[in-house]
């Protein structure tokens, strides 16, 4: 059991931007922290099909697979499972439909990925995924 607990939780994560450049974050029921939409992959499931399934379940939207651009793989402390790490394969992508909170998702927030966020954001998003998205989008902040 301990070896199982030591392995990171493997997920896929989406960075969905609106026309104003804001990105969508979600908050699970019972959590105070906002995270990227997405979730755990099933055994043998490839990343993009897993992401499409999770976005449909959580937000009721359809992933535009042709728009998906891999931002990288990132690891940080899991906010919803203390003592665990989470490892995400993150993708910038577009979706069809209007996102709405479904399943375990309680709240949505559209935030400026450069900050300040205005909501409590998970370290995986704040320190890794959002900076990777900003670099991809050419919006990285210049050093002060």
From TrEMBL:
Required co-factors: Mg(2+)
Domain Nudix hydrolase: 6-134
Gene3D superfamilies associated with the record: Nucleoside Triphosphate Pyrophosphohydrolase (3.90.79.10)
Transmembrane segments: none
Keyword Membrane belongs to the record: no
InterPro entries per record: NUDIX_hydrolase-like_dom_sf, NUDIX_hydrolase_CS, NUDIX_hydrolase_dom
Keywords: Hydrolase
Pfam family, one: NUDIX
PANTHER family according to UniProt: 8-OXO-DGTP DIPHOSPHATASE-RELATED (PTHR43046:SF2), GDP-MANNOSE MANNOSYL HYDROLASE (PTHR43046)
Name of this chain's protein: NUDIX domain-containing protein
Organism of origin: Dokdonella ginsengisoli
């Amino acid at each position: 059991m301990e070896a199982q607990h030591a392995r990171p939780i493997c997920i896929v994560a989406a960075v969905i931007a609106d026309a104003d450049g804001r990105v969508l974050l979600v908050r699970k029921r019972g959590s105070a922290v906002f995270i990227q939409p997405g979730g755990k992959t099933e055994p043998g499931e490839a990343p993009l099909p897993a992401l499409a399934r999770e976005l449909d379940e959580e937000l009721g939207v359809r992933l535009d697979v042709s728009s998906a651009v891999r931002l990288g793989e990132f690891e940080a402390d899991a906010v919803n499972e203390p003592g665990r790490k989470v490892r995400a394969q993150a993708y910038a992508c577009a979706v069809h439909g209007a996102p709405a909170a479904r399943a375990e998702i309680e709240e949505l927030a559209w935030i400026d990925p450069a900050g300040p966020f205005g909501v409590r954001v998970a370290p995986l998003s704040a320190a890794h995924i959002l900076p990777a998205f900003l670099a991809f989008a050419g919006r990285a902040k210049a050093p002060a």
